[in-house]
Amino acid sequence: MEVISAKVDKRTKNRMKRFPDINWSEVIREAIIRKLREEELRRKINPVNREELVKAAKATDMLRSKQAAISENESWNSVEEIRRWRERRRY
Prior knowledge:
The protein has 91 residues and is mainly alpha-helical.
């Protein structure tokens, strides 16, 4: 087996000492395995595409900068802007 370490605050460590019969290494190991299974299942169902995430983040940043520039213009309509982007996404 490989060794990893985890840090807990002093209060937590003192509380753990009250239960010397519990194998804390096993508790941590099981928690890690459970979390790995959850993440593997989640990503299998909805895999993360890094390129798409970066593309979406850039589009969001662009929209924010446009919105800031347009915020002075009272004729800007958020509903129309959302519709325009949704239509653009279909092609």
